[in-house]
Amino acid sequence: MEDVVAVEVRLKGGGKRYFMTWGRVQEAVDGSALESIVLDQCPTFDLGGVAVKARLCDTLQDASREPYFFEALVYFSQQRPSRTETWRTSMDRKMRRGKELYYLGRRKPTRK
What does the alpha-carbon distance between residue 63 and residue 60 come to, in Å, rounded to a whole number? Predict the structure, then answer.
């Protein structure tokens, strides 16, 4: 797992949405706790559907076509995480409250 990660959320009906957030906070390798946190917080975001599953992406590239990808990338690149246990505990609490989960938005339907 990387320091900044993307999480894919699958919607009932087949759509996908993406979040960017900190990796290695809850666990250095296993992303299941982070997936659960993102899925638990989905109802607080306007996803345009009901989230049914979250999956930690292999790379940020998976989310790179989303509307707010670059804004999120700039946000995270400007932060200076200390990676101390105090920082990780604080960040874990924030993430569980829906903070530090950067929703990358929905793509607008293409016009025909």
Answer: 6
Q: What does each C-alpha distance from 103 to 28, 42, 43, 60, 112 come to in angstroms?
A: 22, 9, 12, 13, 27
Q: Whole-angstrom Cα distance, residue 39 to residue 51?
A: 7
For residue range 21-62, list pLDDT tens digits in order. Answer: 999 899 888 999 999 999 999 999 999 999 999 999 999 999
> In this structure, are residues 4 and 61 in contact, taking their beta carbons and an 8 Å threshold?
no
Could you tell me the residue ranges of all domains in the chain? 4-103
**What predicted TM-score, i.e. pTM, was given to this entire model?**
0.92
Max alpha carbon distance in the chain (Å)? 52
